[in-house]
Specification:
about 550 residues, alpha/beta, Dna Ligase, domain 1, D-amino Acid Aminotransferase, Chain A, domain 1, 4 domains, 8-stranded parallel beta barrel, 6-stranded antiparallel beta sheet, 15 helices, 21 strands, about 40% helix, about 20% strand
Length: about 550
């Protein structure tokens, strides 16, 4: 079922994809490559076909081709992502991957797509298909497969494929699971004697290369010496983490230092030159120098084609995405204007991060939970929102504990445990793994994704309640669906919502709110005003009923 990098030559390009095919050639030269195992395209194809995702991709590609309206395309793309994010991965496949990476991967995996179609060359889809970093666990592998599939069949990737003459539903896609090499430095090397006057171009930076300033070196292929160098100021670097690439500050004394040494530049250039003899020219090689060991790894290499320009279908999708971005920006600006207008009317816009003074007139009836370490008057707040390791700092109270990892938490006591999950399956697994160890806790599910909201009926049978983020797309519809939970609260984050939105939430049965740090006072006042309006509506309705009953009695 799985294919090792050493066994790739025994298989077809269709089975392993172009990236894995080329990486096996790199390894055959003796260059160091990360430990890699390949999930072949027929396994991925079967998963997608059995779940109906392949057919949905077919429908989406035809919408991209035939429609001038993006609404259907965005709706179906969202549906496909939802299906992919809840895609069940066979247990025997997960066991096989875990057995294979045992002893070979210690800290982190990275999953990379390896596509193949006869009309494609390696590099044609660069920038359209993403990678995913995660932990070397079964859950991490599941998330990695799901995220890579989701990124490989985005609207823009589908449009690009069709512009190149590839039907996306027929794409053979393998997935490479690799050991993450933590980079001290990384970059690319381009070997193209014809274009570069018998020179190799090396670009490098601290950490991972992805949109950060980089150094450039031109190396003579004859002498393997630097003939020209250009250093950039590198104040930050990117490093991999289970949450993706994160930004880290570079020590001041390294800002203008070259990110590779003289001997390393020569090794990179020689490796690039050797690979060009096998892959052809121009050759593009991506490399990493490992943190702490100064060992050079080749991440991937391929013959760099004359990359096709953006064509009509991809341009159309790019315009759709730009229009949607502009709409979002307009909405954000309107929200800022509303907040500003209220601020000008006398309400402070921000509060101190710890102690907050709230006028007694703003006392609310709804349950109120504030993020630690904000302090509010004892009579106003029902509890704090804390991470698991912060709970010990607080006294007794009806606190909400955010649970991101369910391993070895022990008994948390009489608190509300807020479970975060990426899909319904994970939501169930997390609850079942912790409920026994913390029997006196009340469990809430965080409905941060549309697919979790849509599963409210099923999740409400096992969870005591739910929390709905105020910035979730389609918030009003989500409110209606999530009202099936016995207890429902809204996470306001740092937003100061409109009075009407909070009143709508109260009308739907929301019993409490999670508040931010910077916007606490403004949020409390809006909740208070919304409660007053909601109460007045109820009183007027009651008055109308009494009046009608009086007339009937007469």
């Amino acid at each position: 079922m799985l294919i090792s990098l050493d066994d790739v030559p025994k298989h077809t390009e269709m089975e392993v994809g172009l990236k894995a095919w080329n990486l096996s050639k790199v390894k055959a030269t003796g260059a160091r490559v990360p430990f890699t195992v390949i999930i072949p395209s027929d396994v991925i194809s079967q998963l997608m076909s059995e779940s109906g995702i392949r057919h949905d991709i077919f429908k989406l590609s035809r919408i991209v081709m035939d429609s001038d309206s993006p609404e259907k395309a965005f709706e179906l793309e969202k549906e496909i992502r939802s299906k992919i994010n809840s895609l069940s991965i066979p247990e025997d496949l997960l066991d096989g991957i875990m057995d294979t990476i045992a002893g070979n991967v210690e800290k982190m995996i990275v999953a990379r797509p390896s596509p193949y179609a006869s009309e494609l060359v390696d590099g044609d889809l660069k920038g359209r298909m993403g990678v995913w970093y995660d932990e070397p666990t079964k859950k991490g592998i599941v998330r990695s497969i799901q995220r890579v599939l989701g990124g490989s069949f985005s609207l823009r990737a589908i449009a690009r494929m069709m512009d190149l003459g590839v039907y996306p539903e027929d794409l053979d896609l393998a997935i490479m699971i690799q050991k993450v090499i933590f980079p001290r430095s990384s970059g690319i090397a381009i070997c193209c004697p014809a274009r570069r006057r018998n020179e190799i171009l090396v670009e490098s930076t601290w950490g991972s290369m992805n949109g950060v300033p980089k150094d450039r070196f031109r190396i003579s292929m004859d002498l393997m010496e630097v003939v020209e160098s250009e250093l950039s100021e590198k104040k930050v670097k990117l490093v991999p983490s289970p949450q993706g690439i994160r930004e880290v500050e570079v020590p001041h004394h390294l800002w203008m230092e070259p990110s590779v040494k003289g001997g390393e530049i020569e090794e990179i250039a020689r490796t690039s030159s050797d690979l060009s003899l096998i892959l052809g020219t121009p050759t593009l090689m991506e490399w990493i120098i490992q943190e702490g060991t100064d060992v050079l790894f080749v991440i991937q290499a391929h013959k760099e084609p004359e990359r096709p320009p953006v064509k009509p279908l991809e341009r159309k999708v790019m315009n759709w995405l730009e229009e949607r971005r502009e709409v979002r920006e307009i909405k954000e600006e309107k929200l800022k204007e509303v907040v500003k207008e209220v601020e000008l009317s006398g309400r402070p816009g921000k509060v101190a991060p710890r102690e907050v003074e709230v006028s007694p007139v703003a006392l609310v009836a709804s349950k109120i939970y504030v993020r630690y370490p904000v302090e509010l008057p004892r009579g106003l707040v029902d509890g704090r929102i804390v991470e698991v390791d912060e709970l010990s700092r607080l006294g007794p109270g009806d606190h909400i504990v955010i649970l991101r990892d369910s391993s070895n938490i022990g008994d948390l006591g009489e608190v509300k445990v807020l479970v975060e999950a990426d899909n319904p399956k994970e939501a169930k697994e997390k609850l079942f793994s912790i409920a026994a160890s913390s029997p006196s806790s009340e469990f809430l599910i965080y409905l941060g994704k549309a697919e979790l909201v849509l599963m409210s009926d099923e999740l409400s049978d096992i969870y005591d309640g739910a929390v709905l983020p105020v910035d979730l797309e389609g918030f009003s519809a989500a409110l209606s669906i999530a009202s099936r939970f016995d207890h429902l609260m809204v996470d306001l984050k740092e937003e100061v919502p409109s009075v009407d939105l909070v009143r709508e939430a109260l009308s739907a049965g929301v019993e409490g709110f999670l508040l931010g740090v910077e916007s606490v006072e403004g949020q409390v006042r809006v909740i208070h005003r919304a409660e007053m309006r909601h109460l007045l509506e109820k009183l007027r309705y009651l008055e109308l009923l009494l009046s009608e009953w009086g007339e009937l009695g007469a």
